[in-house]
Amino acid sequence: MAAADLNRAIDIRTLPYERALEKLPVDLTATVGFVESATTAFVQDDTAGTHLHFKPGRTDLHVGDQVRIKGTTTAGLYFPGVDVIELQFLGHNAPPPGVPANYDDLATGRFHYQRVVVEGLGRTLTALDEDRSLLRLAMGSRVIEVRIDSPPESAPDVVDARLRITALAAGGINDRRQLVFPYLRVTDWNDITIIQPPGKPESLPIISVATLLRFGAADEPHHRARIRGTVLAAFDDGRVFLRDSTPPPPPREAPKDEPAKPMQSPSIAIQLSTPAHLKPGLQAEITGFPIMAGFSASLADALVLSTEPGKSPTASVVSLQQFQDGSHDADLVQLTAAAVLNDFFRTNDGYELRLTSSGTPIRAFLLQGSPPSLEIGSSCLLTGICLVESSTDKGFRSQPDRASLLLRSLDDIRVLSTAPFWTAKRLIIAIAILGGVILLTLVWITLQGRQITRLERKISHQATLDERQRIAREFHDTLEQELAGLSLRLDAATTRPLEDKARSLLETSRSLVSRIQSEARNLVSDLRDTEHVTTLAEALQILASRAPESLAIKLDLHPIPAIPPNVTHHLRMIAQEAVTNALKHAQATEVTLHLSSTPTLLTLRITDNGRGFDPTAETHGKPGHFGCIGIRERCRKIGTEAEWQSQPGKGTSVVVTLPL
Known about the structure:
Elements: H1 9-13, H2 17-20, E1 25-35, E2 40-44, E3 49-53, E4 65-74, E5 81-92, E6 99-100, H3 103-107, E7 115-127, E8 133-139, E9 142-148, E10 162-173, E11 179-186, E12 192-196, E13 225-234, E14 239-244, E15 267-272, E16 283-293, E17 296-308, E18 316-318, H4 320-324, E19 332-335, E20 339-346, E21 351-357, E22 360-366, E23 379-394, E24 397-407, E25 413-417, H5 424-493, H6 500-528, H7 536-545, E26 552-557, H8 565-584, E27 590-597, E28 601-608, H9 615-618, H10 627-637, E29 642-646, E30 652-659
Parallel strand pairs: 3-5, 6-7, 9-11, 15-17, 18-19, 22-24, 26-27
Antiparallel strand pairs: 1-2, 1-4, 2-3, 4-5, 7-8, 7-10, 8-9, 10-11, 10-12, 13-14, 13-16, 14-15, 16-17, 19-23, 20-21, 20-23, 21-22, 23-24, 23-25, 27-28, 28-30, 29-30
Helix pairs in contact: 5-6, 7-8, 8-10
C-alpha cells in the first residue's frame, strides 16, 4: 500500500531521520519565505517551515510566492526537507508573517528555517563579503549575528539603535546534525526597522567608570557609554586599558566590621571594534557598550573618539594582598615584593611566566613572539596590568580569588638579581654528568678486567702448550726410545733356536712391548697436538679412529652445549682410559661411546662387551694398576664422579654425569 502524501510542513520537519531517507511523497502548498540560491529556498505554511532543493536550479522564485510543491523527502543537514520534482505557482502575496522569538528560541532551533521577529540593540556593522553585511545584535545579554544580503554602504544608522528585525532563523550545523550556533538571514534592509535611533557618540555624557552597570544606570541591553582617561596599555588584539580621569562617586557604605576603603579612580578594560595605535600616557575619549567581563565592568565594541597628549602613567605600588583583592582590577600596578622566576613557556598569544613571591604563586603574560631573555631563578620586580581571573561568591558579595599580570613589554620586568649558579637544573645536569663519568669508569674497569682475564687465559694456555711439548719430548727421547731398543732386542732373541716355551714367552713380551709403543706414540701425538679439537664429539671421533683393528668402536653422539676446554680434555682422557681397560683387561671386541645431554646434565657412557668384573672390589686399584684411580681423579677435577656398572660375564659401562 503506497504511503499518503505529506502535505504539512510540520509533518515533514518532524520526520525521523531514517523515515526521511525513504523518499516519501510530498504534496505541499506553502509561501516562499527566503531564497538562498537557485538550488535552495525556504517555505512555510500555517504549521511550520521547511526547506526546498531544486535540481536543476531555478531563478524565478521570490519571497511571497505561493507555490504547490510535489517531490520526495530528503534528510537535510538538521531536519528533513523536500527534493522538488514539480513546482506550481499559485500567486503572489505578502511574505509569511514572522513569529516573535528570543535568543533561547533561536538557540534551541524551535523556529529553525522559519521567519521570526526579534528585537535588540545594534552593536557593530561590518562587511561580510563584497555584497553582504554582518550586523551583530544584542538580545538581552547575548549577541547574535544577522547576515544581510545587502552591502553595508546602503545601511541605515543601526549601531546603538534599538531594532526590530524580520528574518529567517538559521544556524551552523555540525556533522552530527546538531545546531552549533544560531544566526539570522535577512534579504535586505527593508526587513530591519529602527525603533529607537542611536544618539551621536560625541553628544553622550562623559561618565565615571565606577558607575557602569550599577542599578538604574541604564536600561537593558545597555546603550553606549562615553568615558575619558589615561591610556595605560594598548595591545595589537584591540585590548586597551584606561585609567578613568572622571571623579568617582562617593564610596559605598562599608560594613561595621570592615574599615572603609578610600575610593580611587578605577581603571577599565576595553575591547575596540577596530584596533587603534594608542600609546601609554595619551588622554583618550572612548565610547563602547558596557558588559561584565570577569570581575569588573568593561567596554566592548568600542571606538576611540579623540586623543590628546598626556603624561606617562605611573604604576600603583601595591602589596600582594592589594594585588589580589580586586581593588586594582585592570589597573597598572607594581608589586612591592620581589618575585622569583620559576619557569616560562609558549602560549597561543605569547609566553606565560610562572613566578613565586613570598610563597604566593603569580602568573604573568608577555605578548611577544620571541622568548624572554630571562634566567630561571632570577629575582624580579614586576609591573603590569592587574587582571582578576576568577572570583567566588561569599553571601551576596563576590570576592576575587586569583589575579594575574599582563605585561606591556619585557621592560615591565626589572631583574634585581640573577639566579645562583647552582640552580636545580644545573645541579641535575652536573649529577647526570658525574653519573655518566662514573658509569664510563665502571665500563672501562670491566673492559680492563676482561682484557686481563683474556691475557691470563692466553698466558696459561701458552704455558700449558709449552709444558705439553716438553713432556712429549721427554717421552719421545726416553721412554719411546727405550721401548724401541727393547723391541729390537726381543726381535733378535726370537731369531735364535729356543724352546717352544721360551719362544712363546718372547713373542708374548714382544707383542706387549709393541702395544706399549703404540700407546706411547698416541700419547706423544696427543701432547704435540697444539690445535686441540674444539668439541668433545670430535675428540671421541678421533679416539675411535685410533683404535686397533681388533676392537670395533661404535659412536652414539648427540649435540651437547659448549663446555670448557679443560673439561673436554678430562672427559676425552676418561673415555680413552675406559677403552684401554676394555681392550687390555676385559678382552672386549666392541665398545660403544655414548654422549648426550639434558638442559641440566651431560652424560658420557663407555660400554663394552668384555668379561665384566665386580666394581666394588676392583675399581679402587690393585698394585700396579692405576686406570680406575686416574678416572676418579679426573672426575674430581671437573666436579663429578664416575660410576662403574658391571657384572662378571656381562660387560662393563663407565658412566660420567656432569652438571651443566
